[in-house]
Amino acid sequence: MTGYLAPTKKVRVADLARKKADGEKWAMLTAYDYATARVFSQAGIECLLVGDSAANVVYGYDTTNQVSVDEMAYLGAAVVRGAGNALVVMDLPFGSYEASDEQCVRTATELVHRTGAHMVKLEGGQRIAPRIRALKDAGLAVCAHVGFTPQSVDNLSGFKVQGRDAGAERLRVDTQAVVDAGADMVVFEMVPAELAAELTAESPIPTIGIGAGSGTDAQVLVWHDMADFPAGDHRAKFVRRFGTVGEDLAAAAAEYKRAVHQGEFPGPEHAF
């Protein structure tokens, strides 16, 4: 263990805002099940994201746009049960909030009711600001997501950095729009580090970076990327591997197979 202790009380939105005011960094990781949520909470991770990245790393879909509300709800409920005092954020999946404010609030309240999550997250800046305002009016905590937005990957012509050149002003407008709409925090994904740092300094709400440099208030990674699981998969430039879970798990499985094949397991000590 790293020496960081699990929070002794529930992490609230106000606690993360206080960390920003105090200049204290904090960490977010994705989680999709009870066991990993429990481990991450015990490691002191302040915030867990039940990301629509589950589409890829849990369900094996090609894109995040294929995961459903039901599929997200099953995972979210498990994460909340294992999350301890960590704050749990639920992604709203593609197609579940774009049509209207009413659809957005209906989806968000259903997910919170079914999972016990503490906050919902949705992608988009200025265009999605009315949805954020509607969610806040319904009494929900909201995390915005600007810059590269994976649910819009086809509209953005692929996995490209956002906010360069003329795009910088668009990102400023998007950030201000979600702040004005009442978002409690905002994710910057794949944006130039200098711009993300400037926007963080200007923002009254906490910012969370993924591929946005070190100048944001917090960082988030998909845990499979963070821990190299499965082993050897392609990782984006902004990912740092902090473990070798895929390699270790494969080695354990191979050793288990060997022991079974050679009659070494189970031994007398494993029998009744």
UniProtKB/TrEMBL annotation:
Chemical reaction(s) catalysed: (6R)-5,10-methylene-5,6,7,8-tetrahydrofolate + 3-methyl-2-oxobutanoate + H2O = 2-dehydropantoate + (6S)-5,6,7,8-tetrahydrofolate
Pfam families from the UniProt entry: Pantoate_transf (PF02548)
Subcellular location: Cytoplasm
InterPro entries from the UniProt entry: Pantoate_hydroxy_MeTrfase (IPR003700), Pyrv/PenolPyrv_kinase-like_dom (IPR015813), Pyrv_kinase-like_dom_sf (IPR040442)
Assigned GO CC terms: cytoplasm
UniProt keyword annotation of Methyltransferase present: yes
EC category: transferase
Annotated keywords: Cytoplasm, Magnesium, Metal-binding, Methyltransferase, Pantothenate biosynthesis, Transferase
Positions that bind Mg(2+): D52, D91, E123
Claim: Metal-binding is one of the keywords in the record: yes
Positions contributing to 3-methyl-2-oxobutanoate binding: D52, S53, D91, K121
Pathway membership: Cofactor biosynthesis; (R)-pantothenate biosynthesis; (R)-pantoate from 3-methyl-2-oxobutanoate: step 1/2
Gene3D superfamilies assigned to the protein according to its UniProt record, in alphabetical order: Phosphoenolpyruvate-binding domains
Superkingdom, taxonomy of origin: Bacteria
Cofactors, names only: Mg(2+)
Cofactor comment text: Binds 1 Mg(2+) ion per subunit.
EC number(s) per entry: 2.1.2.11
GO biological process entries: methylation; pantothenate biosynthetic process
Its job: Catalyzes the reversible reaction in which hydroxymethyl group from 5,10-methylenetetrahydrofolate is transferred onto alpha-ketoisovalerate to form ketopantoate.
Subunit structure: Homodecamer; pentamer of dimers.
Similarity comment: Belongs to the PanB family.
Name listed for the protein in its UniProt record: 3-methyl-2-oxobutanoate hydroxymethyltransferase
Organism: Corynebacterium wankanglinii
Lineage summary: Bacteria, Bacillati, Actinomycetota, Actinomycetes, Mycobacteriales
Name of the gene encoding the protein in the UniProt record: panB
